[in-house]
Amino acid sequence: MSKRQTVLDWTQQGLLRLEALPSALKSTGLLPNQHDWLQFLDRILLGLGTLLLISGMVFFVAANWNALGHFGHFALTEALLLLSILLAWHLGIESLAGQSAAIASALLVGVLLALIGQTYQTGADSWELFVPWTLLILPWVLIVRNSILWLIWLALLNLSIITYVDIYHSPLRTLFGSDESLWLLFIVNTLATALWQLLAHSAHHQWGLRLLATASGLFITILALSAVLDNKPAPWAVPVWLLWLTGIYWMYRRQTQDLYILTGAVLSLITILSAAIGRNLLMDFNAGTLFLMSLVVLGLSAAGGWWLRQILKEIHHS
Fold first, then answer.
1. CB 7 within 8 A of CB 24
2. At what angle do helices 259-281 and 206-229 cross, to 10 degrees?
3. Is residue 102 a contact partner of residue 144, using CB atoms and an 8 Å limit?
């Protein structure tokens, strides 16, 4: 980002001619070359091919459910699962193709579990699919150490929490009440964000960090918003939300700078402050209070945008 901004500043100051801008960006490595494009297309096509192969197998079994019989269902699924594991072992988990095969095998475990549940009607509860799936593919996740596979596992963990808590209450029920699933999701995703930040040493993994931070911020914002708007607010929500904001500011403003995560935190702050102010203003509902509320939202948004622009300037000139 700093190299790009430097080249653009030179162009704006007249030190670099406009017609020379593309070649300058290319020489500094800011524009993708032919090799970069081929590598990008290779990864995209490999990922799409893997997903299409698995989905094609699922739809083939579903379309021929009666014709294949129980033996055919399991034979086809288990054969593809075994083939994907052997391919991952043969190609090596260090290679992109080997990692794609490992991801396919992890997804096929879920297909096999769903097939068992559909065939033998083991139960109607969704958690009986997601919880075993999450536990069974944990060795895949630990061995392969692929970002996409980690995110798939975390997504399954989130689904396991949602589906399980809907039926069985966790020990947090007495502490957080009916919002225990949201609290569990917030805790899990916040811990995952912290671990990802600690263990990821490459900028290529930044998208996963931002995805987890978004999930963490979404859940705590929902909890804080519910506390602000509810007549009987939960005592933990707003203090924990303030603690989360402080942690985000300290980590992604003071220690390092991530404009995306800071933007999410600003959006969360605007949402909660607007809800808190609007709850008091809109008790007397009329056109004047609506106009005043719109000014509050515009003012908070303008202040947040100005602060983020100052950070962007610091990033460009760092």
1. yes
2. 10
3. yes
Our separate counts of H helices and E strands in the chain read 14, 0
- Residues 96, 40: contact at Cβ < 8 Å? no
| Of 198, 242, 191, the residue nearest 212 (C-alpha) | 191
Distance CA 224, CA 291 (A): 25
Q: Are 127 and 167 in contact (CB under 8 A)?
A: yes
Q: How far apart are CA 87 and CA 83, in angstroms?
A: 6
Q: Which stretches within the chain are classed as H helix?
A: 2-12, 21-27, 34-63, 65-91, 96-120, 127-136, 138-144, 147-165, 173-176, 180-199, 206-229, 237-249, 259-281, 287-316
Helix then strand then coil, in percent of the chain rounded to 5, is 85, 0, 15
Check if the beta carbon of residue 58 is closer than 8 Å to that of residue 109: no
* Identity of residue 125: D
Q: How far is 259 from 20, CA to CA, in rounded Å?
A: 30
First to last CA, the chain: 9
216-258 tens-digit pLDDT:
999 999 999 988 887 655 678 899 999 999 999 999 988 888 8
Contact 3, 28 (CB under 8 A): yes
Kindly report the number of other CB atoms within 10 A of residue 29's CB atom.
10
Q: What pLDDT does 213 receive? A: 95
Report the C-alpha gap between 55 and 110 in whole angstroms: 12
Encoding tokens for residue 88? 């991952």
CB 179 within 8 A of CB 223: yes
* pLDDT above 70 for 15: no
Which amino acid, 46? L
